[in-house]
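Annex B. Sample input.
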Amino acid sequence: MRTTIGHARRQSKKRLFKAAKGFRGGRSKKLRTVKETLLRAGAFAFRDRRTKKREFRKLWIIRINAAAHQHGLRYSEFMHGLKLSGMELDRKTLSEMAIHDPDGFKTVVDKVRLAIAERPVAEATA
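Annex B, continued. Sample output.
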């Protein structure tokens, strides 16, 4: 009697094909291409999990810069003043605040201006 495909191999193939569900053409139907495609997909996913962090940080900085410009400050001045004022708000929070709570962001900008104005002259020239 001829031996058909074993249980472990069938389970392995099932797992691969399930992971490739939604891929186009042979990429979801042929074992060799499924394996290649999943390998590449995994590599892209690994790479892009790091890229996503960079892209979001860039987006937050752009939003904060735009909001700070509306209040007459540059991004670098705003962030320096934020550090001087001792407020520990991250870029994500500031970005969301600039979009959804403009009044709150204005309050932060006012405190930043105050912190910049109060810094000692010796520190300002150094």
